[in-house]
Design brief:
By secondary structure, the protein is mostly beta strands. It is built from one helix and 16 strands. The strands form four sheets. Strands 7, 9, 10, 11, 13, 14, 15 and 16 form an eight-stranded mixed beta sheet that branches. A three-stranded antiparallel beta sheet has the order 1-2-3. A hairpin with a 5-residue loop joins strand 10 (127-141) and strand 11 (147-150). The longest helix is centred in the first third of the chain and has 6 residues, at 37-42. It is rod-shaped, with a radius of gyration of 33 Å. The relative contact order is 0.14.
Amino acid sequence: MSGTVNGGGVDLSAGFDTVSGGGGGGNAGGYDGAASAGDSATGGGVQPGAGGPPGPNTIVRDWFTVNCVSGTPCDPNLVVSVSDLVNFRPAAPTQQMEPRGWSVVGLPTNFIATAAVHSRSGALLGFPAEVRFTPVGFRWDYGDGQGRDSADGGATWAALNLPEFSDTPTSHTFTGTGGYSISLSVLSSAEYRFAGIPWRTVRGTLAVPTSPLGVVVAEAHTVLVNRGCTGYAAGPGC
């Protein structure tokens, strides 16, 4: 590229190799290899030759022809996998349970997870990009050898308009007493985009873990008495 001062302004010109590998200024690739900044502004420009249009991975702007390098943002066949997202840390989901921290053998315990669509910015394959994560599945491990997969994170009994200890799509019933650690992983799909390019799908899904929940499971018994515990604290079951 070169420039000259002309009447208080600057005229810029550039030369480059054409698509076919010819020298700047020629017409071997169907497009001239050089143009000036003034040409494009005035509508003159370097006109296309008889060589036909460029290929599908070719960029043409102001009669300049540039081949798209494979593996760069302009490559329409670029494949990005979740393993390429090393510079993007998705938000950690959260989980809760009811009752909080305890459960009863033989009665459902309700588990609820929270995760939302969100985006992160960073470098992808060496280029500035944005990645969008979307939760698509929830996988619980209840610590007793049982687990559950769910399409959503569930909801509280109150939100579902259900009485306490009701069975829900994300509840679990423990069959033995003891302490258990409940772990959850949220499966997320991902999309990416470089500046000025629409969202594209990332191959694969990403499992994002949460902090585990501890629960103590105990047995509960009911006893019939002939008077209340308030007036007879030593009675059975009091």
